[in-house]
Design goal:
The structure is a homodimer.
Chain A lengths: L17 H22 L7 H7 L9 H8 L3 H13 L3 E5 L7 E5 L1 H25 L1 H17 L1
Antiparallel strand pairs in A: 1-2
Chain A binds a DNA duplex through helix 4.
Chain lengths: 151, 151
DNA sequence: CTCATGTCAGGTTGACTGACATTG
DNA sequence: CCAATGTCAGTCGACCTGACATGA
């Protein structure tokens, strides 16, 4: 038992890293959303899958368009869609306008999932708003939008 | 050639997802930092490795403490440190106060790496400040700090 | 005996690139 | 012939949990 100052000091008194500050809320929210899906009877759906639902149009949407909207490759989106389809959340119907393409459409089960996701988002934003105040919450969104638009 | 409205419409006119807004700047910055390291002769170092450097004390730091500071498990941090060591950026010396522990210390090469990282961070913050203005840049940091503290 | 430190082994998530058949 | 769509195959980065030897 040494008499030195404890090496296992408390939390870092260091300048908080901006990268970590940006990453953490996203990670926490994703984990919570996954948990929420599981609680509501959809244990096979994780955050990225739920996220896809918001990009679906009523008429059906191509994988390539979904990929564009979610800012990922078509392959990665294809995987998400395949997973969602295999669990009955979406269906893929041929696009009458282009026989290469398929239109991804939400099923009733998918709508249910999306409702849970929207509810979660609303809750999360409410929690953050309570934490920050409405004014700073609005600032946060505005600043992030400009930042993303600019990079 | 159908006369329908183009399915491959431009960028999503949808309400921007707060999650994506948070994730993207981090992803972009990480990719750029990796690229920068490569340009400066350190192709084997990626963003998380460089990130470790800022958590090192001059006297040397335990893996467990590093993990705590970076908010990850000791195993994950152990991997990062092992990688850094195998490329000569840090060295591990036995902790005289505790024979289980090893102190991770930066080498001269590590200091060089850290300098590049700091330079990059400064550049990035300057870029963002130019994009947002100094006032909103300060707001962003403050808001994120409070948000992270609260969740 | 219990707890902390670090490492080993293995698994998972969420992406990526390249190649390809099909169709426009 | 060239471009776009979606899928298959393989790879990777960045984590995770569990088990363990060593030592406080």
């Amino acid at each position: 038992m040494s008499s030195k100052p404890p090496t296992t000091a408390a939390a870092s008194p260091r300048p908080e890293n901006l990268g970590v500050l940006l990453r953490e809320p996203f990670r926490v929210a994703s984990a919570r959303l996954h948990e929420r899906f599981a609680e509501r009877g959809h244990p096979d759906v994780r955050a990225p899958h739920g996220n896809v639902m918001q990009f679906l149009d009523d008429e059906g949407t191509r994988v390539s368009v979904l990929a564009e909207r979610a800012q990922m490759t078509k392959q990665a989106m294809g995987e998400l869609v395949a997973h969602l389809e295999s669990h009955g959340y979406v269906e893929r119907v041929p696009d009458p306008a282009d026989r290469r393409a398929k239109l991804v459409r939400s099923t009733a089960k998918g709508n249910e999932l999306y409702a849970i996701a929207r509810e979660f988002v609303a809750e999360t934003e409410a929690e953050w708003t309570e934490l920050l105040g409405a004014e700073r919450m609005r600032q946060l969104r505005g600043i992030l939008e400009d930042l993303n638009a600019g990079l």
